[in-house]
Specification:
The chain is α+β, with helices and mostly antiparallel strands and 138 residues long. It has 2 domains: 43 residues; 93 residues, Beta Barrel (Lipocalin). The chain is built from 1 helix and 8 strands. An 8-stranded antiparallel β-barrel has the order 1-2-3-4-5-6-7-8. This is NlpE-like protein. Pfam families: NlpE.
Length: 138
């Protein structure tokens, strides 16, 4: 009879321990979700810049990042055409890298600007490197 009490006590301790582990995982997931929501709010806004262009003066670019993870990207090839091109979709973040659905390149997120990365996801080097950034407008 005594061994039944011991087994019941061990079972009770295991149940409590497992529920604590599951609770910690749920808490960590909730904190991660809250952090992503906060990051979405912090990065949301308008970004603008004139990116380098091979066969035009510049690519006048305006990127709007919304808190609901949608984006609108507008650009005009200055000196080549007055047509405005628009892309819309969802954006996502992994660490400090911003990805736009339907766009081949990504952006490195800094406090007040976005730095466009090359197609391999690396920072652009060289004389024009500083021109590949979109500054926060609002």
């Amino acid at each position: 009879m005594r061994w039944l009490i011991y087994i019941s006590f061990v079972f009770l301790l295991l149940t409590i321990a497992l529920s604590c582990v599951n609770n910690q995982k749920s808490l960590a997931a909730k904190e991660n979700n809250e952090a992503m929501k906060q990051l979405s709010v912090n990065i949301s806004g308008m970004y603008s810049g004139n990116l380098p262009c091979v066969d035009c003066e510049a690519i006048n670019t305006m990127l709007e990042l919304n808190p609901d993870n949608s984006y609108v990207l507008r650009y005009i090839y200055e000196g080549k055409s007055n047509d405005q091109f628009v892309k819309k979709g969802e954006w996502s973040m992994e660490k400090n890298t911003l990805s736009l659905e339907g766009v081949d390149y990504q952006y490195k997120v800094n406090s007040d600007y976005l730095l466009q990365l090359d197609l391999s996801g690396n920072e652009i080097k060289g004389d024009l490197a500083e021109k590949y950034q979109l500054s926060r407008v609002k």
